[in-house]
Every structure is written in C-alpha cells, then in structure tokens.
Amino acid sequence: MRMQGKIGLVTGGASGMGLAFARRLAQEGAKIYFTDVNESGGKKAEDEMRRTGLSVTFLSHDVALEADWLRVLEHIRASEGRLDVLVNNAGIVMSHNIENCTAEDFDKVLNVNLKSAFLGCKHGLALMKENGGSIINMSSITAICGEPAALAYSASKAGVRFLSKSVALHCAEKGYAIRVNSLHPGYIDTPLLSGAPSRLSEAEALTVRSRIGGEIPFKRRGTPDEVAGAVLYLASDDSVYVTGSELVVDGGYACH
C-alpha cells in the first residue's frame, strides 16, 4: 500500500471531496485525522470508515481560527509525534459577481479558503520539517480560468495557488524535504458546489450552469473519487520530485 505507516491530516473531511480524500489515503494504509466544523457529519463519517477497518479519527476544527489549528496539531503531535501529509481542503463557495458581492462575503470566503491554508502551512511545518512530507493545498480551476459568478472564491483560490509556490520555495531553501503543491479540481459533484449560497438571480444561475456544462470536454462533472486519485499521487512517494506544481483535474475544462 502506497501510504503504509504515514500520518495524515485532511481538513473539511466530513463530506464531499475531503471525505473521499480521507477514505482513499486510509485505504492505502495511512492513519488519518480528518477535521470539519460539521461535528455530526464528521462523527458519522468516522463511524462508517472505522466499520470498514480504516484507521481514522475525527476532530472538530474551524480552519479560519488559529487557536483551532494549534489545538488540532498539538493533538496529533501528542498522539503521533509527527505529521507526514497535510491536505488543506476545507473551503466554502458563494456565487456572486463584482457588483453584488459584499465586503462581508469577500472576507468570509477568503478567511475560510485562503487564511486557512496559510495557517495550516505555517503551523503544520513544525510537525513536518524534521521528517519531511507533503502539503497539498486545494485550489481550483477558477484560479486558472477565472469565474465571473464566483468572485471571492476565484480570488481565494488564486491566492492558494501562489501561497503554495511560496511555501514550496521556502521549504526547499531550508532543506525541509517538504513538498508543497496545489491541486485544481474542475466542477465536481459535491455538497459544496450544489449547496453554495448565491446572490445571483435564477436566470443568471441558469446561464452559469449551462455555460459550464457546455465547456467541459468530458461532458460531465467529475466525482470526488476521481480527484482523490490525484491527492494520493501527491501524498505518496510517487511524487517525491514534485513541488511548487499545479495539478489540474478538470475533465479538460482548462483547455479552453
């Protein structure tokens, strides 16, 4: 198994892609801690995975709060003594454009999507730099192509894209043997996408869905399990010479 003996942390792991990532890494032999603000969903996911024999532990965690990061990482340090893989996955989506996005909307999205990746990288390094490892920061295809109906989300994920490069260079210069890469999913069927709060009119939302559907060369949205394969690659030693890179998993959407 490709992750045997590894210790991993996946944020936003109660559902959607985060749950798929936690499950896939655990299936490959890793001991996984996964976190979420959704405590009931996290506990349910923990129970379901444990019943199949997977080594997983759920921890409640608001990724926008530095104190929560320190608490979660201290728990892992006390229990395991190290961290090999960090997947900064937690995020939110709000549908709005430059004219109807409020300052409050913008701040909320950047706090959860970008600030959380900063906090995870900053404090995760302390547990990783002695033994090395892999940090995977979830960005998005919207950080490459842009999306007029997801202003703050696009901005936050573009920030994650270049935060990852900066941290990758820092780790290389310090000789930490920590790989840092960004992963850019396209339009994936998850609760995050289908349940996103919207300030768009019904007509605007319909136009966006129609446009997106017509621009995916594979003619369908992706699944969380399809993205999980890319996470496994970046988490495992198969990507030992890969850092500062952008891995796109989008059914060809970025080709436009």
Automatic annotation (TrEMBL):
Keywords: Oxidoreductase. SUPFAM superfamilies: NAD(P)-binding Rossmann-fold domains. Gene3D superfamilies: NAD(P)-binding Rossmann-like Domain. InterPro entries: KR_dom, NAD(P)-bd_dom_sf, Sc_DH/Rdtase_CS, SDR_DHRS6-like, SDR_fam. GO terms for molecular function: oxidoreductase activity. Pfam families: adh_short_C2 (PF13561). Residues 6-191 form the Ketoreductase domain. It comes from the Bacteria. Its EC number is 1.1.1.51. NCBIfam families: PRK07231.1. Belongs to the short-chain dehydrogenases/reductases (SDR) family. This is 3-beta-hydroxysteroid dehydrogenase. It comes from Paraburkholderia piptadeniae.
